[in-house]
Design goal:
The chain is mainly beta. It has a single domain, classed as Alpha-Beta Complex (Nucleoside Triphosphate Pyrophosphohydrolase). Helices cover about 15% and strands about 40% of the residues. The protein has 2 helices and 9 strands; from the N terminus they run ββββαβββαββ. The protein has helices spanning about 40-55, 120-130, and strands spanning about 1-10, 15-20, 30, 30-35, 65-75, 80-90, 100-105, 135-140, 145-150. Strands 1, 2, 3, 4, 5, 6, 7, 8 and 9 form a 9-stranded mixed beta sheet that branches. A hairpin with a 7-residue loop joins β5 (about 65-75) and β6. The two termini are about 15 Å apart. Monomer. Keywords: Hydrolase, Magnesium, Metal-binding. One of its GO terms (molecular function) is 8-oxo-7,8-dihydroguanosine triphosphate pyrophosphatase activity.
Amino acid sequence: MRQATVCFLLRRHEVLLGLKKVRFGAGRYAGIGGGVEAREMPEQAALRELAEEIGVTVEEDQLQFRGEVTFLFSARPAWHQRVHIYTLTRWQGEPQESEEMRPEWFSVSALPLDRMWADAAHWLPEVLTGKTVRLECVYADDGATLSSVMAL
């Protein structure tokens, strides 16, 4: 199964999300992240993706592990992935738009859940309060509707 990462930068009562501009998830808001490459640990992938997607530099010890969510797509097994979730409150540089992502700050109390993947409502608020999550989210054949969410 494909391994991936997602990171959420936090400041005061805000979280940085990115509007995905291309490929998988285009048009939706999400955390910053992507696939774990061969011979790369999830933490290393998270640091690389933060630099590539929004131009910030982070020390590995600043990543706060917040759990894993396994995503299964009934009609698209190639999309199956296990995502390692991190939050962080310290980084170097200002988040910048890239070809892939346009970063935007949101109040933690006003997340754009209607413009995110359907699963986000089941775990993102928990993660943003410092909790750790372990879930399996199964998407229906349409690739957009959740058919089940199960705690692991």
